[in-house]
UniProtKB/TrEMBL annotation, chains A, B:
Keywords: DNA-binding, Iron, Metal-binding, Repressor, Transcription, Transcription regulation, Zinc. Zn(2+) binds at C91, C94, C128, C131. Binds 1 zinc ion per subunit. Binds 1 Mn(2+) or Fe(2+) ion per subunit. The keyword Metal-binding applies. Gene3D superfamilies: 3.30.1490.190, Winged helix-like DNA-binding domain superfamily/Winged helix DNA-binding domain. This is Transcriptional repressor. It comes from Candidatus Mcinerneyibacterium aminivorans. GO terms for biological process: negative regulation of DNA-templated transcription; regulation of secondary metabolite biosynthetic process. Its cofactor is Zn(2+); Mn(2+); Fe(2+). InterPro entries: FUR (IPR002481), Fur_C (IPR043135), WH-like_DNA-bd_sf (IPR036388), WH_DNA-bd_sf (IPR036390). The keyword Transport does not apply. GO terms for molecular function: DNA-binding transcription factor activity; transcription cis-regulatory region binding; zinc ion binding.
Length: 137, 137
DNA sequence: TTGCATAACTGTAAAAATTACAAAAATATT
DNA sequence: AATATTTTTGTAATTTTTACAGTTATGCAA
């Protein structure tokens, strides 16, 4: 288990107290949280934390490729610390967001139409298994 | 060539003047425009058009599946009238958004992990061919 | 045609998310 | 210890989107 401090330092990030607790929160709560969610969950134990710091820190993590920006269909941006290849499934009924593993390398193109491909995101939408089993309508 | 009026009516939309010009604009300008772009381009010829009407109309088209909401990495939502299966490629250098055709049916799963799949979006990022050929740095 | 009911449009105001910024606090350096 | 640099904080400003209420347009019956 790598130390959070080392992870940040290896990625060129000065491991301040706020950066450490935010990174740890993201690792321990892989729920694709929004800024607001991160802020509200952390301010209980860290009353002096500022929402601007959360914005700044999350932006920094994204720039260093430690964190991924996730567009749900919500208004708020959400963030994903899971760095393994995976897809996202959003239930259009209950709104829950699921991680789906990418077994086979569906996408290992280096180039498509002469564009260099660096990153692929696959987003799925539909009705999740829980909503399907609720045969209430 | 189908008449815009018929397309709207066939989808249960009352073809008002504003809805017609907005639909025609989207068909003739497949540039994934934002609300702002649509509004600004149309208000030249339609000075009384309200931005709220653009919001309302675009929302209606999306609900009727005539139009797709597209999350770029910009702040503004963008909209896509191209209803054929295709992917999107965003150049992280110049910011341009390209349509990429989906030749093979990469994704024809009905269910994954017992979730019913209704819609798939594949988003690619990288450096586009134009930026690649600009060997200026 | 006239009057009435419904639908659509408009513009302003409000809400929500994000960014800018400057002062304060913490940390590092000389 | 004094100074310089980095980080954090809180407020204000900006931006996008939504709510809403009044106005205008449209459809329909008498």
């Amino acid at each position: 288990m790598k130390k959070t401090k080392d992870i940040l330092e290896n990625n060129g990030i000065n491991p301040s107290y706020q950066r450490l607790i935010i990174y740890k929160y993201l690792k321990e709560n892989q729920i694709h949280p929004s800024i607001d969610r991160i802020y509200n969950d952390l301010k209980n134990t860290n009353p002096t934390l500022s929402k601007t710091t959360v914005y700044n820190t999350v932006k920094l993590f994204c720039e260093k490729d430690l964190l991924l920006r996730l567009h749900c269909d919500d208004k708020q941006m959400r963030y994903d610390i899971n760095t393994h290849d995976h897809m996202h499934f959003k239930c259009t009924k209950c709104g829950k967001l699921y991680d789906i593993n990418l077994e086979n390398n569906l996408f290992d193109y280096d180039y498509i139409d002469n564009h260099k491909i660096n990153y692929v995101h696959i987003g799925l939408k539909g009705i999740c298994k829980n909503c399907l089993s609720d045969k209430k309508d």
